[in-house]
Design brief:
This protein has 7 helices and 7 strands. It is α/β, with parallel strands linked by helices. Strands 2-1-3-6-7 form a 5-stranded parallel sheet, sandwiched between helices. A two-stranded antiparallel ribbon has the order 4-5.
């Protein structure tokens, strides 16, 4: 059994967004397989953007962020579901990760060396929706924005492995949507 945190990263709180359906399918598959699941919808959280290094390093996380940190600490596997906006994650997803991944929680500064990764032992999966074919984003654009998130945020604090699923052609019809939802359920069952 794995403890799984699912972050829905679509900034629009409208219930009909495909990101929400994908997250729900993953959660359903995980719960049916006996995994524990917590879900956080970033669009419903109230928190400010960080605006200074002082606040990042020494500020008190607002209540929504403190709860999200508890969920990250609890989880062994984190799933981020978000749409591709201008080649990368929406600003709200980045703002949440900046708030959550503070020094002392996600990593610790060490004198004269690389920071200590405090999220070691946790894995992650990014599920990224887009209008273009997923293989095109990976091949032509080299998935630059998603690779940056995997390496420079999740990898920096210790998540490994960090896997990805590119859900391309999201407006491709009901048959394609059903196939993606079934795949999410299978991934949830495997906690992968």
């Amino acid at each position: 059994m794995t403890r799984i945190l699912i972050l829905v990263g679509h900034p629009d709180p409208a219930p009909g967004r495909f990101c929400r359906a994908l997250a729900a399918a993953y959660a359903r598959g995980a719960r049916d397989a006996g995994h524990e699941v917590r879900e956080v919808d970033i669009a419903t959280l109230e928190f400010p953007m960080l605006r200074s290094r002082e606040d990042f390093e020494h500020g008190t996380p607002p209540p929504a962020i403190a709860r999200a940190q508890q969920d990250f600490a609890w989880a062994g596997h984190v799933v981020l579901v978000f749409p591709l906006w201008l080649g990368t994650m929406p600003a709200l997803v980045k703002a949440l990760l900046e708030q959550v991944m503070r020094p002392g929680f996600a990593f610790r500064y060490r004198e004269g060396g690389m920071p200590e990764k405090l999220m070691k032992g946790k894995s992650a999966r990014m599920v990224v929706t887009m209008g273009m074919p997923g293989f095109l984003y990976a091949w032509l654009y080299r998935a630059h924005g998603v690779k940056g998130l995997a390496r420079n945020i999740l990898g920096f604090v210790g998540f490994a492995p960090v896997r990805h699923t590119y859900v391309g052609m999201v407006e491709g019809g009901e048959k394609r949507a059903a196939a993606w939802l079934a795949q999410m359920e299978r991934l949830g069952a495997k906690a992968g």
